[in-house]
């Protein structure tokens, strides 16, 4: 059981709702994964705090009677105002008065809602990408195939993902290839290429794009990690690392346009 699967069932584990097989799988994973064990302790602490008496208080005597009385008075006042509004509207109603605010609200929804949904989706994806990067470093599972040779790393993905990820050797530009591994993002397998720059590791996540058009680079900072996202050649690319944004942009530029040709002898 991996980290993602454990996080999906950790609440059931706490509540004792898992069957013996899944229960044992979670316990075995928690013994090996410090991040998931820390998450479990956090959930247990939160549960203990929520169960404490400090969050509860006794209902004051007479509160129910006062609330009921206030509700009745409010209903009477609202009924009187509603009758007056209906009479006023009945005599002064016109189509422009109704349609103008409705049209304005529709325009706001058409413009703002898709943008808000897109931003929310990209924020969740960015968080998942950074979590996958951190998990690869914490679990000592940086690579499944460790090699600086692009002709070794690229064929390794055959049959493991339904696409062929582009693999570029950038050792001459001080971004040597370390290897690759299979990872999961948004519940589907992706290719993860690992590069190194000085003492920093960079994870490059790649999967087929739903939109084949090429897009510009979008930079994000999440939990102290820098990430850059772009689309190119029918693929989605996410590069994430703890090194500075300038060095990461240099790597992305090399990945997008390729390394410069070697100098003639």
What does it look like?
This protein has 265 residues and is α+β, with helices and mostly antiparallel strands. Helix 1 (3-14) packs parallel to helix 3 (34-51). A hairpin with a 2-residue loop joins strand 5 (218-222) and strand 6 (225-232). Among the domains are: 3-45, no CATH class; 116-257, MucB/RseB, C-terminal domain (Phosphorylase Kinase, domain 1, 2-Layer Sandwich). It is built from seven helices and seven strands. The protein has helices spanning 3-14, 20-32, 34-51, 63-92, 95-138, 150-156, 245-257; strands spanning 145-146, 177-185, 188-197, 200-208, 218-222, 225-232, 235-241.
Question: For the record, what is the CATH homologous superfamily label of one domain?
Answer: MucB/RseB, C-terminal domain
Order of helices and strands: HHHHHEHEEEEEEH
Shape: extended
From the N-terminal CA to the C-terminal CA, the straight-line distance is 53 Å
- The CATH topology name of one domain reads Phosphorylase Kinase, domain 1
Radius of gyration: 28 Å
Number of helical segments with 4 or more residues:
7
The top-level CATH class of one domain is Alpha Beta
Q: What topology, given as strand order, has the largest sheet?
A: 1-2-3-4-7-6-5
- Overall structural class, as computed from helix and strand content, comes to alpha+beta
Q: What's the average pLDDT?
A: 81
Question: Which range best describes the helical content: under 10%, 10-25%, 25-40%, 40-55%, 55-70% or over 70%?
Answer: 40-55%
